[in-house]
UniProtKB/TrEMBL annotation:
GO terms for cellular component: cytoplasm. Belongs to the zinc-containing alcohol dehydrogenase family. Residues 75-184 form the Alcohol dehydrogenase-like C-terminal domain. This is Alcohol dehydrogenase-like C-terminal domain-containing protein. The keyword 4Fe-4S does not apply. Keywords: Metal-binding, Oxidoreductase, Zinc. It comes from Leucocoprinus leucothites. SUPFAM superfamilies: NAD(P)-binding Rossmann-fold domains. It holds the Pfam family ADH_zinc_N. GO terms for biological process: butanediol biosynthetic process. The keyword Membrane does not apply.
Length: 321
């Protein structure tokens, strides 16, 4: 396998999924595992209260896990995007707020909902000065702040928060979680995972309906699944079936991702080297490899610009078979 040659054993994980489990749910296990571990780090229990800062994919998976573990708990989501606030309500948030339009931010709502004590846990998926300030203000004495964000800049922290004996922790270095999550999903303890899938596309459409869709309408999506192939529908009864090998071999359409935006050589000229057309799988692999440099190229017929992978890295595109 190409993946075995490009990555080491610490980078690739293979888990066995029971056959009845839908492949759509199986493809989301990694994201569920991240949320599952974050909730465990917070020591969250039924009846506890929580604040989720941000409404992106990671936040919504945390919301789903929290709601599965604590159906009656008060969970507030703070998110500036109207579309994502709507998604948060759909997936179990007790209340949502727009931090940019609320004078007291989450603090007023939290104190009202918790009789002035504050929440038991805050999950920060934003990673800004205002988010950490809100987190420390909204936590009750003995509460836990779980950082899920990648911070671009250093922030100032009022160390007086220690008087509340708040625990600040992260949730990135986890292991041996996937088996727990698979068992929890199979046992019905985490439900509605398939509802977090907002679209399913073919691999030939990974740029137009995947990357570009996330760049242009990212607030409307949580998970986009990419299928390497889709079995053709069965022919109608009595229809003649052609035995030509051309019909049985998958045909790659126009390039989805390429490592060059130079115009294709003139194939009529035998003196010029003919560019090799890459398969969709190779195109996705090339995009992943180029993620280290932060850019990837797409055909001229789509755009002349290079898109930064960092702007869509938070919205995972899973590949399922």
């Amino acid at each position: 396998m190409k993946i075995a040659r490009q990555y080491g054993p610490r980078d690739v994980r293979v888990e066995e999924i029971d056959e009845p489990e839908p492949v759509e749910v199986a493809a989301c296990i990694e994201s569920v595992a991240t949320a599952w571990h974050a909730v465990k780090r917070a020591n969250f229990n039924e009846g506890d209260t929580a604040l989720i800062l941000g409404g992106g994919p990671t936040a919504l998976f945390i919301l789903r896990v929290l709601r599965s573990a604590a159906p009656t708990s008060f969970i507030l989501v703070s998110e500036s995007s109207p579309a994502r606030r709507t998604l948060a309500l759909k997936h179990g948030a007790s209340e949502v707020l727009d931090p940019s339009n609320t004078h007291f931010g989450a603090t007023g709502i939290i104190y009202k909902a918790t009789a002035g004590f504050g929440v038991h846990a805050v999950f920060d998926t934003v990673g800004t000065q205002s988010s950490v300030d809100s987190a420390l203000l909204c936590l009750r004495t003995g509460g836990t702040l779980v950082n899920m964000a990648v911070w671009k800049t250093n922030v100032m922290v009022n160390m007086n928060f220690m008087f509340k004996e708040i625990t600040v922790t992260g949730a990135m270095a986890y292991d041996n979680v996937h088996a727990e999550v698979i068992e929890a999903v199979a046992g019905g303890h985490i439900q509605g995972i398939e509802e977090l899938i907002t679209d399913s596309i073919q691999i030939e459409d990974v740029v137009k309906k995947g990357y570009l869709e996330l760049l242009n309408k990212g607030d409307e999506h949580i998970k986009i699944l990419v299928r390497p192939h889709e079995p053709p529908p069965p022919p109608p009864e009595g229809a003649a079936q052609e035995s030509s090998s051309d019909d049985t071999e998958p045909k790659d359409e126009a390039l989805a991702i390429t490592t060059s935006n130079k115009p294709a050589p003139d194939e009529s000229d035998p003196t010029k080297e003919t560019a090799r057309t890459t398969t969709p799988i190779e195109q996705v692999a090339a995009a992943a490899a180029n993620a280290k440099t932060g850019t990837f190229s797409i055909p001229r017929r789509l755009t002349e610009k290079k898109l930064r992978l960092s702007s869509i890295r938070t919205k995972f595109v899973e590949v399922i078979d």
